[in-house]
Write a structure and sequence with these properties.
six-stranded mixed beta sheet, about 375 residues, Immunoglobulin-like, mainly beta, 3 domains, 3 helices, rod-shaped
């Protein structure tokens, strides 16, 4: 007889469940949980348990973190609220009720799975359990930093920099952007996060804050430099962004200039004026007395010129040597050179008169002494 009653009860329960699934039975349904997947440390959060009792009455609502109950609401009891303390979990009892719980001053210690269990009273006695995960974010104290960058880069040079984010929980996700475009993954290196021990002795490894680091390494090409909208030549812009669950979003941006090759020892070209018009020449400094000229010297295969700052050394080649002092002397006397073409140059502003070169004076004195003898 007892076995028959047990079979009948089991059959009734299964039939009620089947009817509930098919929609023929009324009672507890549409149970769901509304909670943020991540929240910032020390903030206040509200977790809502939604349900529809239809024709049933509420028997109780229980809240769990992990497998431990921390709050219960039973409307037919007095008082209807019961709180079961959990270390690190601060419940606002006055704001918690049959549909929600409010947590204050949240810390990483209470991250984890939260569950709401709703039970209906007679006649259905239905019970439903829904769960969700929540992570408490402990963001970095400062924006990310970029290290190893220079003010200027040449085309063909390697740009090798690192971006580091201060300790956070969980570790920040770092991304590199070059000229407003996501960097090629082959340029980026992500290093393993490093944990930083906290002050709390009860802190577990999962609760520890961790640093993040990512490197950016690539060969700089001409197309990496773009014209700056504010002027100042072509620039390359890089940006590192640190993101933690979308709740923390900080960036650090750097702009570098293009370094162009420098031509050492080159001064502005002089101009030669002749019967055929104006054409450019190569200026050389010729030492003189108290003044000097920047004179155009025509190229000659028999002579090699080596520039030393503003001076020119003429080396003998092809069997003859050009007399630089004579050239300077001719230029000083009347502004003409050899073939009657005028040379255009600049006079030393510090000199009131040109005067003969020291070398010419020296040789003149030697000639006079020899002739007297």
């Amino acid at each position: 007889m007892k076995k028959n009653k047990g079979k009948v009860l089991t059959l009734v329960v299964r039939l009620a469940a089947l009817l509930s699934i098919m929609g023929f039975a009324h009672g507890l349904r549409n149970v769901r949980l509304s909670m943020p997947p991540a929240v910032v440390r020390n903030s206040e959060i509200v977790i809502v348990c939604h349900y529809d009792l239809e024709d049933d009455h509420l028997y109780t609502v229980k809240w769990y973190r992990g497998g431990r109950e921390f709050f219960r609401y039973t409307p037919m009891e007095d008082p209807p609220v019961k709180v079961f303390p959990i270390h690190g979990l601060h419940l606002d009892k006055n704001k918690s009720n049959a549909h929600q719980v409010v947590l204050r001053h949240v810390t990483p210690a209470i991250s984890g799975r939260y569950s709401c269990e709703v039970s209906a009273d007679a006649p259905s006695f239905h019970t439903a359990l829904v769960s969700g995960d929540m992570d408490v974010v402990d963001p970095p104290k400062t924006p990310p930093s970029i290290k190893g960058i220079k003010a200027r880069y040449r085309v063909g040079e390697i740009l090798n920099v690192t971006c580091a984010s201060q300790p956070s929980r969980p570790p920040a996700n770092l991304t590199w952007v070059i000229n407003d475009q996501l960097a090629d993954p082959s340029y980026v290196t992500h290093y393993p996060p490093k944990s930083v021990p906290g002050k709390e002795k009860w802190e577990t490894e999962e609760m520890r804050r961790m640093t993040s680091k990512a490197g950016l390494n690539f060969v700089v090409h001409s197309e990496h430099f773009v014209e700056s909208t504010s002027g100042g030549g072509r620039k390359l812009k890089i940006r590192c962004t640190a993101n933690v669950h979308g709740l923390y979003w900080k960036t650090n941006e750097k702009s570098v200039e293009e370094e162009r090759p420098k031509l050492y020892g080159v001064s502005p070209q002089a101009v030669e004026i002749g019967e055929e018009g104006i054409r450019s020449g190569v200026p050389y400094y010729l030492g003189g007395g108290r003044g000097h000229y920047d004179v155009v010297v025509e190229e000659d295969d028999s002579m090699e010129m080596e520039r030393r700052g503003n001076d020119v050394i003429a080396e003998e080649g092809g069997g003859h040597r050009r007399d630089m002092e004579a050239l300077d002397e001719a230029g000083r006397e009347d502004g003409y050179h050899g073939d009657g073409r005028r040379r255009h140059g600049t006079k030393d502003a510090s000199s009131g008169s040109l005067g003969p070169p020291i070398a010419t004076l020296f040789f003149t004195l030697i000639s006079l002494i020899v002739s007297i003898r």
